[in-house]
Amino acid sequence: MMLFFFNNYASGLSLYYFVSNLLTIFLMLVIKNYIINDDKIHAKIEENKKKPRKAGGFSARLQKAMEEAE
């Protein structure tokens, strides 16, 4: 799409955007299909769902203050 917008400008600019877009598309496809393992990610998410959550900094201090107030 950008190739058509920059067609009236210098040919180097059009070539740069065209090659840059092709390279970006290629890299995203490689990363998505070969580097990222969806099964491993889903297994890790399910494993983390089973673990109890620890209270964060502010909520832990608030809980402690409420217990001390009683």
Give the end-to-end Cα distance, rounded to a whole number of Å: 65 Å
**How many individual domains?**
1
Biggest pleated-sheet summary: none
- Pick out the low-confidence regions: none
Q: Which oligomeric form is depicted?
A: single chain
Q: Percent of residues in beta strands? A: under 5%
Structural class: mainly alpha
Tell me, what's the shape? elongated
Keywords for this entry:
single chain, mainly alpha
Task: List the topology elements.
Layout: H1 2-5, H2 11-35, H3 38-50, H4 57-69
Structural write-up:
By secondary structure, the protein is mainly α. The chain has one domain. It has helices spanning 2-5, 11-35, 38-50, 57-69. The mean pLDDT is 86.
Write a brief structural summary:
With 70 residues, the chain is mainly α.
